[in-house]
Amino acid sequence: MPLVFKRILLKLSGEALAGGQDFGVDAKRVEEIALELQDVHSLGIQIAIVVGGGNFFRGTEQAEMDRVAADHMGMLATVINALALQDALEKLSIYTRVMSAIEMHQVAEPFIRRRAIRHLEKGRIIVFAAGTGNPYFSTDTAASLRAMEIKADAILKATKVDGIYDADPVQVKDAHMFDRISYMDVLKKGLKVMDSTAISLCKDNNLPIVVFNLNRRGNIRRVVTGEKIGSLVGA
């Protein structure tokens, strides 16, 4: 089976790990995601993951808090999610490393680029936690940055809809889905794919982004094997 991408960075939202819950981690949902990753990993794909923390804490929504403090709290929330993913993957006998942008030696390795690439080459899955380690930068931007640093072939942005639409498909029945769209059009149209910093970083380095529905089982495998699903953001 031909593989379109050999090394991917998967961007997961914190809400993806919450399943149907409003808060926290749904262990069953995390297990389902881990099983899909196991399937893709068995193809020989090198996998890195950046996970958000919105199922615990979203710094940008804390208007009464200092932004820097709120962002640091959000980064710590991503570490909880990363550890949950690591646990689920290792129960499937997949060696997994959590690498944190904020040093916390008892629970995660510090992010070191060369070590991260070595983990991938040895067939380990990496979960990048704590965003970029800096306030004012989202986990979308962290995903773009880490993808560039590890020389990923693409970012796979997992969502709860089938791709990129010109309007919210939940609220607008005849919303149009783009099969392919340029970085500039995403920015000009103000589409809520990833934040503008993340899109601009991908544009400057010509890194493709595939936006797809995580809730359809087998979709990660379909993307890496070249099936036409979701939306592709490119030049």
Key terms for this structure?
8 helices; two-stranded antiparallel ribbon; 9-stranded mixed beta sheet; globular; 37% helix; alpha/beta; Carbamate kinase; 235 residues
CATH T-level fold name: Carbamate kinase
User: What's the CATH C level?
Assistant: Alpha Beta
Task: Sum up the overall morphology in one term.
Answer: globular
**Fraction of residues in H or I helices:** 25-40%
Total number of helices? 8
CATH architectural type? 3-Layer(aba) Sandwich
What's the number of structural domains? 1
Specify Rg, calculated over alpha carbons.
Answer: 17 Å
* Count of individual beta strands: 11
Write up this protein.
This protein has 235 residues and is of the alpha/beta class. The protein has one domain: Acetylglutamate kinase-like (Carbamate kinase, 3-Layer(aba) Sandwich). It has eight helices and eleven strands. The longest helix has 24 residues, at 67-90. The chain is globular and about 50 Å long. It starts with 6 loop residues before the first strand and ends with a strand. The model has no long low-confidence stretch (mean pLDDT 95).
Q: Can I get a quick summary?
A:
The protein has about 240 residues and is of the alpha/beta class.
